Amino acid sequence: MEPRISLITLGVSDLGRARSFYEALGWKGQTVEETVFFQAGGLVLTLWDRGKLARDCGLEEHGPTGFGGIALAHNVRSAAEVDELIETARRAGATVTRPAATTFYGGYAGVFVDPDGHAWEIAHNPGFHLAADGSLTVPDFGSP
Amino acid sequence: MEPRISLITLGVSDLGRARSFYEALGWKGQTVEETVFFQAGGLVLTLWDRGKLARDCGLEEHGPTGFGGIALAHNVRSAAEVDELIETARRAGATVTRPAATTFYGGYAGVFVDPDGHAWEIAHNPGFHLAADGSLTVPDFGSP
Predict the structure, then answer these.
(1) Is there a single domain that holds both residue B109 and residue B128?
(2) Judgement on whether residues B16 and B74 belong to the same structural domain of the protein
(3) How many domains does chain B contain in total?
(4) Computed from CA positions of residues A7, A11, A13, A18, in that sequence, does the dihedral angle turn out positive or negative?
(5) In B, which residues are within 8 Å of A71 by CB distance?
(6) Contacts across the A-B interface (CB distance below 8 Å)
(7) Which of A12, A33, A89, B49 holds its CA 20 to 30 A away from the CA of A18?
C-alpha cells in the first residue's frame, strides 16, 4: 500500500447545509447523485448522507455521539491566519470547541466542529514545513 | 481557507498495535511523544490516544460506537490491486466489513476497518484520475 489517502468522506445529515458550510469557508463543490465532491489539493473531500455512508462501509450507525474518533487539521502560515479562519468558520456555523491558543509544541491552534460534528484543528506549527502548494511534511525527528 | 487538508489524526487505544498495523500495510512511521506520524503524500497521517485526542478537540468521548462518521479511501489502479490490498489488510489484523465487489459507478471496491474501527475503502474508480504521484482528481461533472 502506497502511503497516501485518496479521499475522505464526511457523513452528514443535511447535504445542502454541509455544502454551504464548506463553501462559506472558500471551498468549491460539485453535487453528483446526492454526493458533494471538493478537490482538496491531491485528494478529494466528499460529503454524503451519514446513514448511507455507514451502510456502504458495512458498519452500524448509532448517530453522532460526540467525538467520532478522527480529527482533521488544516495548517496555515501564521497565528493571525488561525484566528481569521476560526472566526470565518464560526460565522459560517461552526462551533468552536477549543479557542485558539499557544500549543505545547510552540505553535498556535484552535479547533472547531462543522455542523455535523466533524472536528477540524486550524494550526500554525512552525516545526512542520508547509509548502507553497499546501503540502505538509513531517520533520525527520530522528525517532524510531 | 485554501481547499486542502494538512493532517488526519486517528484516535487509537493501543499506539503500538496501531503503528504495527499501518507498518504491516507498508507505511513508515516515527513515534514522538506518544504520537505516530506517517508522511502520506502531501499530508500527514497521525495516530494518537483516542481519549487525549477527544479532550484536545474539546469534545466528549464515549468510546468507539460502531461507525464514527468518516470514511477514508485509498484509490488504486486496478481491481486486482483492490483484492491484494484488502487481503494484506486482513492479514495485518483488519476486519473486512464489505468484501470487494463491483460498484454502481463502474468501479471495484471493498472496505475494511483498522484495529480501532476506522473505515478504509480500497477503490479502483476508473472515473477519477489517479496520477503517478498518487494525487486523485475529481472529474468535471458539469454539475453545479
Answers:
(1) yes
(2) no
(3) 2
(4) negative
(5) 8-9, 11, 53, 56-57
(6) 258
(7) B49
| Interchain CB distance below 8 Å, A67 and B62 | yes
Task: Report residue B40 as a C-alpha cell.
Answer: 502520506
Residues A55 and A92 in one domain: no
Residue with cell 477514508: B72
* pLDDT tens digits, one per residue of B1-58: 999 999 999 999 999 999 999 999 999 999 999 999 999 999 999 999 999 999 999 9
pLDDT at A62: 84
For residues B131 and B79, state if they share a domain: yes
Does the ipTM exceed 0.90? Answer: yes
Contacts of A61 (CB under 8 A, 6+ apart): A50, A51, A54, A55, B66, B67
Query: What CATH number corresponds to the domain at position A99?
Result: 3.10.180.10
Helices (DSSP H) in B6-92: which residue ranges? 15-25, 50-56, 79-92
Within 38-97 of B, beta carbons closer than 8 Å to A belong to 38-45, 50, 53-54, 56-62, 64-75, 85, 88-89, 97
Nearest to A119 among B3, B57, B138 (CB): B57
